Amino acid sequence: MALIEREIAVLVGTTVVALSPKARSVARKGAVYGLAGALKVGDVVSSTARGAARGAREGVQGQSGGAGAESPRASKPRASKPRASKPRASKPAARRRAPKAAAAS
Fold first, then answer.
1. 77-98: per-residue pLDDT in tens?
2. SS3 category, 88
3. In 10 A of CB 41, how many CB atoms?
4. pLDDT tens-digit profile of 45-56?
C-alpha cells in the first residue's frame, strides 16, 4: 500500500505549480524551450524530406539520360545581384562646419 495515492500526488503537484511563482516560471520556460525544440525538429525533418525528394528527382533524371538529364538549376550559373550602396546621411545643420571667413584686409 502506497503512502499517498497517485491522484492525490498529481493534485498536490498541480497546486504547487499553480501557486508558486518560481514553479510557474520554470514551467513557462520549459514550455517555451519545448515549443522551440519542436519547431526546430519540424524544420529539420521538412528540409531533410525536401533534400531527399530533390535527390530522388535528380537521380531519376540522371538515369533517363538524353535531353533534360541535368537539372535547370545546375546548368545555369547563378548571377550575383549588385549590392545597392546606402546613401550617406548628411550631417545635421548644427554639426556642419561654417565656412571660414575671408581675412579682412
1. 566 666 666 666 665 655 666 6
2. coil
3. 10
4. 999 999 999 998
C-alpha cell at 100: 571660414
Q: Residue 75 class from Cβ within 10 Å (0-12 exposed, 13-18 middle, 19+ buried)?
A: exposed
More confident residue, 63 or 78: 63
6-19 vs 21-64: helix axis angle to the nearest 10? 100
Query: Would you put residue 2 in left (φ > 0), alpha (ψ -120 to 50) or beta?
Result: beta
Q: Give the C-alpha separation, 54 to 42, whole Å.
A: 18
3-state helix vs strand vs coil in the chain, percent to 5:
60, 0, 40
- Measure Cα distances from 22 to 8, 12, 34, 105 in Å: 22, 16, 18, 80
In degrees, rounded to 5, the angle at the alpha carbon of residue 86 between the alpha carbons of residues 80 and 92 is 175
**Terminal CA-CA length for the chain:** 112
Contact 62, 69 (CB under 8 A): yes
